[in-house]
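ok so for the tutorial part 2 we go from a plain amino acid sequence to predicted structure tokens. step 1 is just haveing the sequence, like this:
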Amino acid sequence: MKDPYFAHLMFMIEELIFDADIEAKENGITFKDSQIQSVLAKAKGLSAGKHPLIEDSTETDRFLKALILRIDNVPTCTSIQSGDEDGPISEEPLKRSDWILAIETTKASLKVRKSAFPGSRTYLDYLQIFVKETLRLLESERHRAKEGQP
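step 2 — the prediction. this is what the tokens look like for a chain of 150 residues:
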């Protein structure tokens, strides 16, 4: 995704998945790529105003349900800043249609990275590296900016 706006939205989703995966592991639960694919489909449905069946009969189901609800909730508590460097910056609510597109794009990314083998974690393992490295780079950029370095 080359559009910085949508890349940012996708990263928000991937960071939520990353955090949920860590939380699940801390509780003895191992997510699979196929479960995350289902989470994204259900979160997209919720965001589009549908009512997908969301199981919560097991501990794993409850963790997955929490992730679905976190993803769906982002547009209600997120605003997007817009404006150019010289003009005023305004804040607008995140458009649900943009969020749905970001969910779809994240789901497509998962499909590309996921293994054909049942029970795989190829995408989730990729996220572990990608999110950690991205957060490290962002922190490094913030530090350089704070120090006045290019």
